[in-house]
Amino acid sequence: MNQTVVDVRRVLSVIARYEDSIRRPQEQRWTLVTGQPRWRSNNNHLDPLNPVQGIKPLDFDSYYKYAVRCFEYLKFGSNVDQAIRGTYPFYEALYVCQTPTILELLGWQQNSFFHTQKHLRKEIAPVSRNGHALPVETIKQIPELLEQPVAVFDSLTRHDSSVVLLDANDPAGNPLNVALQPNGNAQHGGRQSTGGIVLSVYGRQAIDRFLQRNAENQTVKYVDKEKIKKLIPSAELQLRGTYMSFVNSSVQHSQTDSQPQTREDLTARISGHISDHPSPSPASPSISPERPKL
């Protein structure tokens, strides 16, 4: 598909802005640059051999689909920043995402998920203040990380909750867990809303013991075998025989009602709504979705 430079600029601008906001390491980036990409045109169309200066030749449709998702991730990240600055409505919970597809396949209803500012502040507070010491950039990745989890478990401590193991670590190297409640209430949009609740995000210590307990209690609901072998090399032994595996290519990313559905819609909504890139800073622990092979 032959795309104009303007099309590619809009798509890559969204992706680059998200990657900057989470301080994605250079080797994991889709855009392969830091900050606003630079463009080079050939008669107002892409040069197929070198379409964008500093960018590898790309599969436009794959990048476009990722840009649509990044557009939603950025809104959550912006709300996180506002909550930390104290400019987000004090009693309002943050909208995180819709029910991830994996959880839908496990029987969860499609719902909006919310996260309270109280829990957010605890997650970024230092350990000395009984916090989880997570970088803000890690919190901003939660919607994306929930789309492709490493594993899902029924909670060992709460009958109404689940725990999702994410493909990321905290600064101490502990794998990240997210506790989720499928049915709860949150103040959002000036009213009480019913939906899922992101209860807590934290680094899981003694992960081997955690996996063993879940295997023993038969609370393992889903495992991505490839991801868990990379994240926790010893995990396969604890979970052997308990796998519930899905083919990755069959999992479709869920979209919220507010997501742009067409390129024109995306373009219209991007215009005037994207601020300057934040200044680059050292990379925090992060994970990048698989880029199209080039």
Automatic annotation (TrEMBL):
It comes from the Bacteria. Residues 250-261 have a biased composition (Polar residues). This is Phage MuF C-terminal domain-containing protein. Residues 129-229 form the Phage MuF C-terminal domain. Residues 284-294 have a biased composition (Low complexity). Residues 250-294 are annotated as: Disordered.
